[in-house]
Amino acid sequence: MKARSIVLPGLALGFAALLIAPGSDSLASYTLFGSTLSTGQRDVRLYDNLNDAQSNNNNAPETEFPGYFGAELAIWKGITEWGSTTHGQGTGDPTQGVIGNGQANFDASWQGNALGVGGANDNIISGTTGCQSGVIAFAEGPYADGWRIRMCDDQWVFADGPGAISGGAFDIQGIIAHEYGHALGLGHSCNNAATMAPSGAPGQTSLRSLNFDDIAGIKAAYGAKASTKPVICQTSVSGTTMTITGDNFGATGNSVWFTNVNTTATGIDPRVIVSGLTSASGKVITLTIPASAGPGDVLVKIQGGTTGAFLSNAFPTDLVGTFSNSAVCPIVVDDISPDTVPALMPGTSQDVTITGSGFLNATDLYINTSTLIDPANWTIVNDTTITVDLPQFGFLATTNLLVASASDSDFGNITVEANTTPAMQLGTGDDFNVIHDGEDMRVVLAGTPGTLHKIYYSASALPSCHPKSKWAMGDQFSNFFYATEATIPAKGWTEFLAPVVFSGPDVDIYSQSIDITTAPAPMFGISNLQIFTLSE
Predict the structure, then answer these.
(1) 75 contacts 46 by C-beta, under 8 angstroms
(2) Which of 203-217, 337-351, 357-371, 433-447 has the lowest mean pLDDT?
(3) How crowded is residue 501: how many other Cβ atoms within 10 Å of its Cβ?
(4) Mean of the per-residue pLDDT values for the chain?
């Protein structure tokens, strides 16, 4: 194992890196060791041999970091700050705006606990004794092939936070963020406000948050986050099945990394990996959760390259519920077509199309931001298209259709107008609904508010003709029966049950309505034809 002390500046870069007592401010300037971690070296574990009670006295759960407490939770948050984008919702630390701000092609894979301190390339964090005077913690190389971080537990008290650190203790989260920066290939920064500043102080929590100089450094080492880098914006679980939603997944050959539920041996790769997975439209991966997977992070690795541009952000899961980040995959409604609809659109065809993006995350669709539309009435065609069979609106006005996910929503406006010609829907409005003899038929009738409409039935599909009306049924009115009538209210439609005037087995019945109030020359308004089957 190579060793380097920041106290002795003449030795070569790339060896051990130490965090020591405070120094003076200087101009911002990151430094690089010249080596970076391969995608096979993104795992991080803790061998929790820390002796101080303050190191593991935090038992408050953090939603976006499920399943871990104490030092494990603090370390997980510390390494996650270097991630390419916001971790889940970004919450979990009272001293930071969001967690996850590296903006580079780098993301770590949290792997829980190890059974020992491991070797210099086992990627394990642990406590140690016998450090040089003034040294708080240090990272050991060779870095490109792995690393080890030691915390000088005999000289200092370490606290797990997550709030203010008191009693002369050092903040685990911030110190690990610094030391993990060394593991990533970054040297010390001359900017004393940076996470990679060469010194730390008791009670200091500012190291938790990356400074612009730290972000510039990790971008220089791993490249700025590629636009083609896979991204996860939602994990959801039903039973033993997980659905991962995001973008830039491969059509085939995807691998999903899970956090290992077990405390794992040194000298091994602890990641739980499911390989050979397909995606739907490059946006949705569905898989069975492996038995050895536990709460933690999920990452997606696509085939075609070995750099961090082919590995997604780390995204949380408790293997039970849904985690979402709308900032990563926002829902956007661009257009609703048609944007003006009649009060009644007979049938169950999905006649309205919503276009935009992020729809694969959608869970609900609302009218006027609050009235939930039955999921059976709308379909997510793909990430950019939703089709809708609109329910009956209770008004004639301009309103909105709102598309919502667990964490985001957007809407577009739609105008509801009165039907200009009579419209009728029997049952579902689809042809040949079956009605049993003796039952009433559900009728929805629409037209100009205030107008009176009469409904007629016939067992004949032959048309009828009159100087003021043309019907698609009734065989010149020789087979033509009055059923009922209704007046259209202000909302443009009315609904009721009407008796069926025929009886007999398996008879096809035809029906239309006529507006007898308005008679635009030269014809009365006749509705669309509705057909149902009368059955015993």
Answers:
(1) yes
(2) 433-447
(3) 16
(4) 90
Q: Tokens 């606990």 label which residue?
A: 113
Beta strand ranges found along 383-492 (DSSP E): 385-388, 398-404, 409-417, 423-426, 433-436, 440-446, 452-458, 464-466, 469-471, 481-487
CA–CA distance, 428 with 86 (Å, rounded to integer): 46
Q: Give the pLDDT confidence of 102-159 residue by residue, as tens digits.
A: 999 999 999 999 999 999 999 999 999 999 999 999 999 888 789 999 999 999 999 9
Q: Which residue in this structure is represented by tokens 């659109």?
A: 345
Distance CA 339, CA 346 (A): 17
Using DSSP, state whether 355 is helix, strand or coil: strand
Q: Which residues contact 197 (CB under 8 A, 6 or more apart)?
A: 23, 178, 188, 189, 191, 207
Separation of alpha carbons 379 and 362, rounded Å: 10
* φ and ψ at residue 219, rounded to 5 degrees: -65, -40
Picking from 252, 250, 259, the residue whose alpha carbon sits closest to that of residue 315 is 259
Task: Name the DSSP letter for residue 114.
Answer: B
The tokens for 267 are: 């000298």
- The whole-angstrom separation of Cα 259 and Cα 112 is 7
- The CA distance from 213 to 221, in Å, is 12
Whose tokens are 């209210």? That residue is 489
In order of their start, the domains of the chain are 17-222 (3.40.390.10), 231-324 (2.60.40), 332-417 (2.60.40.10), 423-535 (2.20.130.20)
Structure tokens at 186: 């970054």
CA–CA separation, 533 vs 505, rounded Å? 9
Within 10 angstroms of residue 82's Cβ, the number of other Cβ atoms is: 26
- Tell me the whole-structure pTM to 2 decimals: 0.72
CB-based contact 373:366 (threshold 8 Å): yes
Q: Which of 157, 175, 132 is nearest to 4 (CA)?
A: 132
Say if residues 509 and 532 touch (Cβ distance below 8 Å): yes
**103: its two tokens:** 């903006």
